Amino acid sequence: MYAYDLHKIREAELLHRAEHERVLRQVRRDRRAARRSGHKEDEGAVSSLRNRFVHAA
Predict the structure, then answer these.
(1) 41 phi/psi in degrees, rounded to 5
(2) Is the dihedral of CA 27, 31, 37, 39 positive or negative?
(3) What is the C-alpha to C-alpha distance for residues 19 and 42, in angstroms, rounded to an integer?
């Protein structure tokens, strides 16, 4: 029974590590793709009330 418990604990640790590594690979892949495309998620169009109206002459 003790060996089985150790086996199940080790299995859970390995599954957790594998999931963590999958997530890291996905994050790296997404960052690489964003860098290549030149897309910057942080920057967007700035809109304010001053930009919506033209200045009077």
Answers:
(1) -70, -25
(2) positive
(3) 27
pTM of the model: 0.55
- Using CA atoms, how far apart are residues 16 and 20, in angstroms rounded to an integer? 6
| b/e sequence 46-57, b meaning 16+ C-beta within 10 Å | eeeeeeeeeeee
Among 39, 17, 43, which residue's Cα sits nearest to residue 30?
39
- Write the pLDDT tens digit of every residue in 15-51: 999 999 999 999 999 999 998 887 555 555 666 666 6
Structure-token pair, residue 5: 């418990």
